[in-house]
Amino acid sequence: MSPRSQLSRRDFTRYSIAGGMVSAAGLSHASEPATKGSIDAHVHVWTPDVKKYPLDSKFTIESMQPKSFTPEELLSLCRPAGVDRVVLIQMSFYGFDNSYMLDTIVKYPGTFSGVGIVDHHSPKLEETMKELGKGGVRGYRIHAHGNDATDWTNDEGMGRLWRIANKNGWAVCPLINPTDLPAIEKLCRQYPGTRVVIDHFARIGISGTIDEKQLDTLCGLARFPDVHVKTSAFYALGKKKAPYDDLLPMIHRLVDAYSPSRLMWATDCPYQVQDGHQYEDSIALIRDRADFLSPSEKKQILQGTAERVFFS
Q1: pLDDT beyond 60 at 25
Q2: In the Cβ-directed half-sphere of 241, how many Cα atoms lie within 13 Å?
Q3: Does residue 57 carry a pLDDT above 60?
Q4: Cα 240 from Cα 246, distance rounded (Å)
Q5: How far apart are the first and last CA of the chain?
Q6: 3 state DSSP class of 269
Q7: Could you report the per-residue pLDDT of 76-105, keeping only the tens digit for each?
Q8: Helix axes of 156-168 and 181-190: crossing angle, nearest 10 degrees
Q9: pTM of full prediction above 0.85
């Protein structure tokens, strides 16, 4: 990582106000070509073929929006941006049935890795996770589904999931809100050595503004060496408008806390390409506009970290 001064909370505020200057600096890289070999570390795919791949009982065909987002549709978007590998996140439409994701991994050898969803209360949890691991799954998503994640810290099934993931070198991938960060901290203390990948900055900024105290808490988790963060879902955070320069101060803080070796870029497609948002704008924020990153640091965030965690 190249030398840089640490970005304090005071600097963060000043840097945020100077967003126009950040944007202007980023434009100096606008002519750079797409970073070949990049990895999109968070994408969902699904098919309109609900006969072959039935939906979970909680969902209907009408709830699938868009109706289709297949690997072919995804690759038509990501390959022109220099992205040739993708981490698939099991789509909630299918519940615990990871079949469509597994079949996609098989159909495109070397292109996809997977993050599955399992029932952590199942008596066959370890057997299920090992079978998914054979199919290319390298992480397991956990989601509180609107409840407080505090319950996870006393849940034996959740504890088993963390222990099994640790034993096999797989990642636990929490989809959480900022208020859940203390629960993740406690789990990291309970199960040291378990690889953790926090989705979408822990949704800091989803309200429209970046809360510095929440960001302090997320940065504080960097003291656990196995915690990683996805710099992702730019369309949903802060001003929610390209080119997303208002998120650069938060990314800078995380770079200083975690180093690029524990950060990974992702789009959260297909949501990144809806409502006027573009795929290219997402990768461009790191590739072209984050002028505080060296070329090697950009490559680490765009490729190296996800490669180590999900493709090794």
Answers
A1: no
A2: 3
A3: yes
A4: 9
A5: 22
A6: strand
A7: 999 999 999 999 999 999 999 999 999 999
A8: 60
A9: yes
DSSP 81: G
Q: Which residues of 183-194 are buried (b: 16+ CB within 10 A; e: fewer)?
A: bbbebbeebeeb
Confidence of residue 144 (pLDDT cuts 50, 70, 90): confident
**Do residues 86 and 78 make contact, with C-beta atoms less than 8 angstroms apart?**
yes
Structure tokens at 198: 């926090």
DSSP letters, 233-261, are: -GGGSTT--TT-GGGHHHHHHHHHHH-GG
CA dihedral (125, 130, 135, 138) in degrees, to 10, reads 90
Q: Pairing state of beta strands 38-43 and 171-175?
A: unpaired
Strand-by-strand arrangement of the 83-89 sheet: 38-43, 83-89, 112-116, 137-143, 171-175, 195-198, 227-231, 263-265
Q: By the 8 A CB rule, do 295 and 260 touch?
A: no
The answer to whether 310 and 138 are in contact (CB under 8 A) is yes
The domain locations on the chain are 9-310
Residue 228 structure tokens: 């990683």
Q: Which CATH superfamily is domain 9-310 in?
A: Metal-dependent hydrolases (3.20.20.140)
